[in-house]
Amino acid sequence: MLLRKIVGILLVIAAAAGILFSLIGLIEIWRYRPVVTKAVVENLALVDQSLNTTQDVLTIVGQVVQTTTIDVTSLQATTQALALGIHDTNPMLDSLISLTSTDLPATVSATQTSLASAQNSALLIDNVLTTLTSIPFLSVDAYKPVVPLHTALAQVSTSLNTIIPSLVTINTSLADGKTNLGVVEVELNKISGTAQGINVTLGSAQTVIDQYDAVTSQLKANVEAAQLGVQTWMNRITWVLSFVFVWLLVIQLGLGVQGLDLVRGHREAK
Predict the structure, then answer these.
(1) Are 157 and 112 in contact (CB under 8 A)?
(2) pLDDT of residue 137
(3) Partner of 259 for a Cys bridge, out of 8, 19, 62, 190, CB 3.0 to 4.6 A?
(4) Percent of the chain having pLDDT more than 70?
(5) What is the share, in percent, of the chain residues with pLDDT greater than 90?
(6) What's residue 140's pLDDT?
(7) CA distance between the termini of the chain
(8) Distance between alpha carbon 163 and the CA centroid of its chain, in Å?
(9) Binning pLDDT at 50, 70 and 90, where does residue 204 land?
């Protein structure tokens, strides 16, 4: 009997605490519903604003990547064209080097040899003309040129002597220039390869940017939908929690009645 009363008292106390908890919970739900709804709306608005900012940043970054891609593509095309142009000049440089090292010196030497032979003939002609014009019976002015033909030919041959050193200098410059152009061609090809690699990287970056933009757009659509339905969802949650607390309240009332029955000894009387 005493044990039942103690159990009954404990049940009544537990029921009273549960009823108090349920009532407080039910009141607080409806009390804080506007506050929570406002906080959720404000947070959703902040998220939406953040997503808008993210989309703007992604748009700017995408434009920068596109512009950079165009510039790098132009750089690659330019360096390739320059490298190809330099490569195409190699046969011409080879021809000039061969011309200045072999063909032109041989031509100068042959010309000087021909002039040397012509000098002897010119000297003979000069002597013949001088002799013929000195005959008294011929009414011809004496042959006395300012520069005799053989002398003029000798001067021409002598002047050709300066061409050979000039050709050597030109040949050396052409050879050095070809070597330097070869180095430039190699470097231009390296730059072109690097630009191509950058283009591949920029293409991957653009793909990632597009993916982020798609995800951001989807999130923004979900947030906007949540903003439109937040009031409805908060009302549903409030009613569901209210039902739970009312259900707990009913259970606690039943528990309290059982405790009172034990305290009063109704069960024993039965």
Answers:
(1) yes
(2) 57
(3) 8
(4) 89
(5) 0
(6) 56
(7) 13
(8) 54
(9) confident
Question: What size, in residues, is the chain?
Answer: 270
DSSP class of 198: H
Token pair of 154 as six digits: 């000798």
Map tokens 């004496």 to a residue.
142
- Asked if the 2-269 domain carries CATH number 1.10.287, the reply is yes
Contact 73, 202 (CB under 8 A): no
222: tokens are: 């979900």
Amino acid at the residue 239: W
User: Who's near 65: CB < 8 A, 6+ residues apart?
Assistant: 202, 205, 206, 209
Tens digits of per-residue pLDDT, 134-182?
A: 666 555 566 677 777 778 888 888 888 888 888 888 888 888 888 888 8
Query: What is the residue extent of each domain of the chain?
Result: 2-269
Q: Answer whether 30's CB lies under 8 Å from 246's CB.
A: no
DSSP per-residue string spanning 118-166: HHHHHHHHHHHHHHHTT-TTS-------SS-HHHHHHHHHHHGGGHHHH
